[in-house]
Design a protein that fits this description.
The protein has 226 residues and is an alpha/beta fold. It has helices spanning 10-18, 29-34, 42-52, 66-77, 91-102, 115-124, 134-138, 143-155, 179-188, 197-204, 207-225; strands at residues 2-6, 22-26, 57-60, 83-88, 107-112, 128-131, 170-173, 192-195. It has a single domain, classed as Aldolase class I (TIM Barrel, Alpha-Beta Barrel), CATH 3.20.20. It contains 11 helices and 8 strands. Strands 1-2-3-4-5-6-7-8 form an 8-stranded parallel β-barrel, surrounded by 8 helices. Helix 1 links the parallel strand 1 (2-6) and strand 2.
Amino acid sequence: MKFFLDTADLTEIEEAASWGALAGVTTNPTLYARIGGKLADFPEHIKRICEITEGPVSAEAVGTTRSEIIAEGRQLAALAPNVVVKIPTMIEGLAATRTLANEGIAVNMTLCFSVPQAILAARSGARYISPFVGRFDDISEDGIEQLSQIVVALSNYDFSDSGVSGQSVEVIAASIRSAQHVTQAALMGADIATVPFNVLKKCVEHPLTTNGLLAFEKDWEKVIQA
């Protein structure tokens, strides 16, 4: 499994990148607004993220018609070679994805919640598909089970003839709320988990590691004082 960071915060991205395990970044309008981002600064902000990580950086188109999404997608893809255009899973989004994929532009179809949506996204040429886990949990449904169904369904077929440059689709487990979500996504074979920075830190932490380190330090102090 690869780790993407779900954020627009440059400090978080730089720190995660320093750990050596960061494979990409996903952003969206909410995350950019959360850091106080301004519209005029958005292109340069995406460029900066692309400089920090060599992996794919998903930047979301906000248009609602296929023509708007296609135009935005072309503009976003022109910012850096590792930009992936993020498009919602809807009819207009599917049409825009087909056009952009035919032009060699990678697309991450987001807000995916069902197997039929995921298959249609893959057939339209999406390079990545992002099923949301936590939002199912928010309505008292099993988001991990929904993710599992999508992973299994997509693994039944070869979509390499649909996407960019013959690349097959990858599943990004999105709306991840905990390290347990990451564990479950990894066990079912999701290709990528995109996680907030606080969840990424929790993936590193474990109470037995902390307790073991404290014990080592305490015992070493005895050695020093002997």
